[in-house]
Amino acid sequence: MAGPIVAFQGERGAFSEEAAHKLLGRSIRLLPCETFAAAFARVARGKARYCLVPVENTLAGSVYENYDLLVENRLHIVGEVNLRIVHNLIAFPGTTRKNLRQVYSHPVALAQCGGFFRRHRRVAKVPFYDTAGAVKMLSERRIAGAAAIASRAAAAVYRARILQKNLEDHRENYTRFVLLARSATVARRANKVSLVFSTRNLPGALYKCLSVFALRDISLTKMESRPLRGRPWEYLFYVDFLGHVKEEHCRNALAHLSEVTDFLRILGCYRSARR
Amino acid sequence: MAGPIVAFQGERGAFSEEAAHKLLGRSIRLLPCETFAAAFARVARGKARYCLVPVENTLAGSVYENYDLLVENRLHIVGEVNLRIVHNLIAFPGTTRKNLRQVYSHPVALAQCGGFFRRHRRVAKVPFYDTAGAVKMLSERRIAGAAAIASRAAAAVYRARILQKNLEDHRENYTRFVLLARSATVARRANKVSLVFSTRNLPGALYKCLSVFALRDISLTKMESRPLRGRPWEYLFYVDFLGHVKEEHCRNALAHLSEVTDFLRILGCYRSARR
Questions:
Q1: ipTM value for the complex
Q2: Domains of chain B, with CATH numbers?
């Protein structure tokens, strides 16, 4: 039986593909998309069961575009996974560590491997739109002396060689991905809730919103803010907390939160990833 | 007498230049820098008295790179200014609205003028590293049928013509800039404080931090979070509040905050911009 279709942003071999396999196993069917918005749209239109998108990286911070897309779309978070980001130096025959002169990758990946470029002064960084896309391009053009920085999955997909592993400066480099679906199924083992709200324009408004959790000993794991369009200097707040929407103290907290907010939406209740 | 040197990121005619004149008048000397980090460095090394950098836009959100640079550098916020972002279609002789085929600008500016491109299907968006830089490039290369999207200041600096004003989709498009200096001078009329802290890893830690303000009726105007490097899933919080560091209730709030945080730094106390 064919597994569910999972949309993701990037070329085959993207870090999102590694994350999808980690969360859902090997039997899924992958649907690469050009943009995050396109990955959301595939699910909204029923072309894919799920999409998996990154929401934060422990070095680079939140992926704000996906926070915005969570509000603009009506999808539900049904799972999450954390992936340790290992950057590999990947090349095809014709490129060795000796003749290496150019490395293609996404600017964030190049920035996360600054130490490598400081140790190899003759090697130029070449910004590219995508990590796995850089491997794909080299698989077609075979530029001598050129390599890419990308995931192990990208090396496998395009049958390239890994010249060096662990190019990243910091080992504490993790990306958190969320799995989105059209319907809001809540697993019984779910233990985390994501929501988004805007505060009323009152003194201490944000404090009151956080008090609904603190007064019930509910732990927040993340808080993020984004501008509210059309209302300059006002914000949307995204909060993740540990609990299940059916637990009484969480139900009470959410009812209390709706009293002190202008806008409130539950984005999902799901099983948290291991940290 | 020559005015103070003000470093900023971008080419001459950047929105930062408009903001610098709005805050400091016409007698300043401008020092364009390639990157935000370079603008910070000019001040740190005494090559410029100030630098002026954007920290948030009401549509695009915070400029996270500058939040990170505020912590990495030891500069102090000594002022702020809000600038309404007006995008102009700018061209040189040889380009008219009739033969227009290509528009060069920074990807964020192109995205903020989506309506213009939907109304003019034959006009291609061409991403460029900088808004004012696109005008500069056209001033040198004079490509027929090509224009740029940039500030009014850019049109003036490069003696170009404004073909159309107000290309932006949303009028509620403001950017907030902060003025940074090496020493922490506090104006008597200062009424806003910016600080950054990390919470202790305790339940309700963020709530306790915000309570130091709420309990004293101190208004927060902004809160932002960024990842704490090397400590996955922990965060630095940036808070702006209305008050003066010498007022008693603010001094008490700051003393109280230092009790409940692991790390705390005052980034500056300055006169807030008009909203």
A1: 0.89
A2: 5-85+175-181 (3.40.190.10), 88-164 (3.40.190.10), 192-270 (3.30.70.260)
